[in-house]
Recover the amino acids of this structure.
């Protein structure tokens, strides 16, 4: 497996995991039982949205970049996710949209920013050596 394939698979796995964490935290905060399978039920619209965010701008070319890749995945997850929730009769209210926008932004952009910081620090150490 090439390093570019490993890179986009790792980024996609990170997005998947963080969207599931977002859904599980939300279910737990609202005392909705069955957190594990319920998280998948809650997360699927956001996962589909993230997939759209991956496909439209071809995120796999630079999967760990905050801009434009991370922003595309984040906004895809929120916008398409909310549209799918509305289309399937799930709750879509302004406070939830705001929480999703902020939480998924912190998760999906944050892990990419952290990755960039770690890579820069490693490159500086290697350059000094």
């Amino acid at each position: 497996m090439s390093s570019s394939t490993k890179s986009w698979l790792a980024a996609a796995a990170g997005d998947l995991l963080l969207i599931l964490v977002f859904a599980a935290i939300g279910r737990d905060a609202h005392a909705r039982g069955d957190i594990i399978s319920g998280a998948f039920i809650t997360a699927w619209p956001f996962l589909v949205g993230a997939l759209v965010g991956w496909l439209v701008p071809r995120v796999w070319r630079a999967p760990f970049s905050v801009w434009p890749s991370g922003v595309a995945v984040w906004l895809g997850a929120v916008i398409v996710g909310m549209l799918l929730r509305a289309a399937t009769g799930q709750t879509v209210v302004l406070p939830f949209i705001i929480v999703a926008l902020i939480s998924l932004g912190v998760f999906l952009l944050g892990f990419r920013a952290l990755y960039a910081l770690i890579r820069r620090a490693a490159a500086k150490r290697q350059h000094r050596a």
